Amino acid sequence: MSTSKHVELPQPELSLTKATQKYNNTYLTGKGCRLVTRSEHCVLDGEPKYAFLRRALPMDRVRSFGKELSKLEYTPVAGHSRRKCMLGSPGGFLNFGWHPTNDVLFKPSEENELFYYMYLPVLIDAFAILLHQHFPEEWRRQTKQAEAEGNRLIGSPKWEPRHSHRVLRNPIFSSVAVNVDTKCRSHTDSNNKNGLSCMTTFGDFDGVTFCMPRLGVMFDVQPGDVLIADTNREQHGNVSGKRKGERISVIAYLRELA
User: Fold this and answer.
1) DSSP secondary structure letter of residue 243
2) CATH no. for residue 248?
3) Which domain holds residue 161?
4) Residue 55 domain flag
5) What's the whole-model pTM score?
């Protein structure tokens, strides 16, 4: 079982609304933010904000998953991404899981069958277990919300695709974003159904941190680490210095589906 220290944060100077006015669509610098280096979790005003978990994933699986990620052909951000926070970013991306407005899978899910149907459920199941361990009430809330989506969940036992797939007992994520060497401006994931998303990274890199400026914290999420965060309400983005090496981030979330 992954363990983490409970941390009491000072009350933020900015409200959620004021933080959005100040940071939204800007490149974050991390000025005044504490770099979190050990496993810890934070609850603010009764709401879970983050759990940063060092080496929470088995490294043999991390290496295996990383090899599969390196085989994928990513869509360039330039000229293809519609997300404002990604405008002007280098790198590439792929979206997996269910389209938010149409009852169909994103194309990369079908174009990368082995990855989507067999590898991805293993990773997001590990995310779900960690969410249950550290924020059980949020896990229960998200489980109830996910049940409303029926088969539109990655690994759902109600899902009957053309391909064999790993079935999860309690699937709670509808979507996964994979980004490679991107630089993301500050934003909120307001279309997520639940405030908590789960992310990890793959590759051999240095010089990029994940920042939550209103809370005054940032995280150097390395392969094997997991960050569970309230990205739905909190402004967040990358602080990019002189990045070295390839960085692939994988983020799982429950989307508000039509």
Assistant:
1) E
2) 3.60.130.30
3) 22-253
4) yes
5) 0.95
